[in-house]
Design brief:
Layout (H helix, E strand, L loop, with lengths): L3 E14 L2 E14 L3 E5 L6 H8 L7 E6 L2 E2 L5 H11 E4 L11 H8 L5 H10 L15 H13 L5 E5 L7 H18 L2 E5 L3 H4 L4 E6 L2 E7 L1
Helix pairs in contact: 3-4, 3-5, 4-5, 5-6
This protein binds adenosine-5'-diphosphate (ADP) and magnesium ion.
The site of adenosine-5'-diphosphate (ADP) has 12 residues, from strand 1, strand 2 and helix 1.
């Protein structure tokens, strides 16, 4: 039997906005196997980012069961949650979220649990960024910045990568190359990947495509 990297059962996330309640997640059910590669699609406001934030323990569910690698996240202490997040989860964002005053190498090192510049360089090399160690984000193209961000996400050997519209700011060619990097990480290194995207071409790199609407999974297709 497959181990589950992610298990969501009847998960709700309710935000208070003024006097209103917004159900960003409204009974979301999803189970992903270790080593899976899943694209999440759906209209703006359907809860895709909230889902990634709860999955990555950046946010807590209001109700429901969330397990990462079999561990129920709300039962962990804050410290254990932080450890799980650092050791097992890599995040990639649409706008890269690099520290602008730091070099590529420093950005990657900053996230490292055990500081090891040799290892940081190896991960940057793997992203095709040899020779760019000392560049700051403004000295890099969008595609290069996103590859630094992927290196940062990978540097602690996570079991899962959560990517929120990672190609949203990129042109077609760079978008394709970022998706191919994720595809290779999944295939060669067995990293589980969840990627939110609006782009059907990007989604096609994944093995499964789930569609969200109003805080729920409404459809799931496997290749
Ligand atoms: P998506 O990523 O699919 O565009 P989000 O997860 O960002 O959707 O948002 C889902 C719903 O939750 C939206 O209605 C959004 O306005 C609301 N929402 C998200 N985050 C917050 C927040 N921090 N406070 C209040 N409402 C939020
Ligand atoms: Mg979003």
């Amino acid at each position: 039997m497959n181990n589950h990297v992610l298990e969501f059962r009847n998960v709700w996330k309710t935000y208070h906005v003024g006097d209103d309640l917004v159900n960003a997640l409204a009974g979301l059910d999803l189970t992903l196997d270790e080593g899976s590669f899943t694209a999440v699609m759906g209209p703006s406001g359907s809860g895709k980012s909230t889902f990634l934030h709860v999955a990555g323990i950046l946010d807590t569910p209001t109700m429901g069961l969330c397990r990462i690698n079999g561990m129920e996240t709300i039962k962990l202490s804050t410290k254990e949650q932080a450890r799980l997040r650092r050791n097992e989860i890599g995040f990639i964002f649409q706008r890269f979220n690099l520290m602008s005053q730091l070099t590529s190498l420093e950005n990657v090192m900053l996230s490292m649990i055990e500081k090891d510049s040799q290892k940081a360089k190896e991960v940057l090399d793997k992203m095709g960024l040899e020779g760019k160690y000392n560049k700051r984000p403004t000295q890099l193209s969008g595609g290069e910045q996103q590859r630094v961000a992927i290196a940062r996400a990978l540097v602690n050997n996570p079991s899962i990568i959560l990517a929120d519209e990672p190609t949203g700011e990129l042109d077609t060619k760079n978008a394709k190359s970022i998706m191919q990097i994720l595809r290779d990480l999944n295939q060669n290194d067995g990293v589980s990947i969840v990627v939110v995207t609006h782009n059907p071409d990007a989604a096609n790199f994944a093995d499964e495509i789930v569609h969200m609407s109003d805080g729920k999974i409404v459809n799931m297709t496997s290749k």
